[in-house]
Design brief:
about 150 residues; alpha/beta; Transcription Regulator spoIIAA; 5-stranded mixed sheet; two-stranded antiparallel sheet
Length: about 150
Amino acid sequence: MFEGEMKSEGRITVFHLKDDLSTERVKHFLKKMNDLLEEGRHYLVLDLAEVYEVSLIGMVGISSIFNRCRQAGGSLKVSHLTPRVRKAFRNTNLINTIEVYDDVLEAVKSFRSQNLLKAKQYSGSFFLKDRNAFVGWDRLPLSGHLN
């Protein structure tokens, strides 16, 4: 089994993976990601801040989810690569395929270029705990955490 936490706002889903993506955990990870895709969640941000190791099959799984998002007209982006995970992304060349961001907010804001503001299900704001308020899409801080 693996641990993770999901947050959604409109069409964007942020998944905070809270375990290493070892060979034993990949099957559970892929099941969760595939469930999200089947629910129509095609705009995904995978937060890897608490992941310190990813197996080769884990990298293949991430690549598979990336391809499924693209085929559905969406996108997968990753944030917070730890040094060891960044090295795995470099070694498998995923660093040049999947968009990588230093924090979740940057990844979420990058969807702006995909015209999500015009999407029917997009609410146009995010709740930021540190401000205890909803903040409009165009007023998200340039860096920080999406809470």
